[in-house]
Amino acid sequence: MTSSDPVPSGPAPSESTLSESTLVTYYARIDSGEVAAGLELLSPDVSFAIILPGTAVRGSDRDGVRRYLEGRGPVDRRHVPTHATRTGELEFVYGAVVEDGVTITGHFLASARIGDDGLITGYQVAFDPELGLVSPTLASPTLASPTPASPTPN
Q1: Which of 13, 55, 122, 128 is surrounded by the fewest CB atoms within 10 Å?
Q2: Smallest Cα–Cα separation from 1: which of 80, 82, 98, 94?
Q3: From its phi and psi, is residue 70 left (phi > 0), alpha (psi between -120 and 50) or beta?
Q4: pLDDT tens, 12-61?
C-alpha cells in the first residue's frame, strides 16, 4: 500500500461482533483522542501486557495504561479491527494499525478478559510490523497489498 492508496474507514466482516466488542470500543475512544473515556472501560486494577517489537510494557492498573498512552506523545494512529470474537469472558480482536490515515504500519492481536461489570480486567496485545494475517485492504481488490512501514507502538 502506498501513501496515496485510500484505507477503508471501517471493517466489513463481522459487523455485529465488532460493534459489540469492548476492545473495539476501547480502541475507537483512544484513537479519537478520548483517552479518559477509553480508560473508563478498564478496571482500576487491570493487568496488562503490551508487546511491541523488541519490548514489552507490563502493569497492573489503569494508571499504568494511561502512562503508556501518554508516553507515546502525539500520534496520528488508529486501529482498524477486521475480526472480533468473544467466548465467555474472553474477547479477541485482530486488525491493522494505520498511521496518518493511509499507511498500514503493522497488525495487532488483542485479547481481554471482561469482568462481570463489563470492564476489562486483563488486557494483552501484540503488534507486529511485518506479518499481517488479514488486512482491511483485502476487502477491496483495487487496493494493493499493504507494505508495512517502520515499527510503531500500539
Answers
A1: 55
A2: 98
A3: alpha
A4: 444 556 678 999 999 999 999 999 999 999 999 999 999 999 999 999 99
